[in-house]
Design a protein that fits this description.
Elements (H helix, E strand, L loop, with lengths): L1 E4 L17 E3 L14 H4 L6 E7 L10 H11 E12 L1 H9 L5 H8 L3 H6 L11 H10 L2 E12 L8 H7 L3 E11 L1
Parallel strand pairs: 1-2, 1-3, 3-4
Antiparallel strand pairs: 4-6, 5-6
Helix pairs in contact: 3-4
Amino acid sequence: MKYNLGGRPTGSHFLGNRSPEYKNVNLEEGSDLPYDITELDKFIPEDNVVEEFFMEHTLEHVPIPKYKEFLSDLHRKLKPGGSIVVIHTDAGHVINLWQQGHLPFRCMKKTLFPPADYVAWNPLMAHQNMWTGGDLVMDFKAMGFDAQQFNAGFWDYDLTDEFYPLLDATYQKVQIKNLGVIAIKI
């Protein structure tokens, strides 16, 4: 079994033509399994049965009080040798872009904490947490995984500001680095 936690019914950029191999779990209409991703026991009753969990720009939406328990539950559901693949914005890279003057603070902030229109459309779009690669690897290792970073590419800055839309237009296409981490249950 493979699960795309937080996956959209339209598929995944990173999974490409492998998307049909995964069950999309999301409260969004049209998902294969309409569940809260943090409630794994509701849609995966057995432990040690999952081959892979994939999360593309998802983990940062897990509420902070549930984060450690969620990682523990992922570990419990995976088969030995099973994996978790995480791709999301690299917070350290975004902060460096701001520090080096490549993004103003407003744009940096919106990258780490989504704009109001995103969260108004869907309150679950709010980011609860962000990581650098090293920090996320450390979290997985603390939970009993073997973990390492991988190159997950970039996305072009494409957000809009409700107060200063012309400001954002100036920074469209600045490349924002994705953080990739793979964690293997040992």
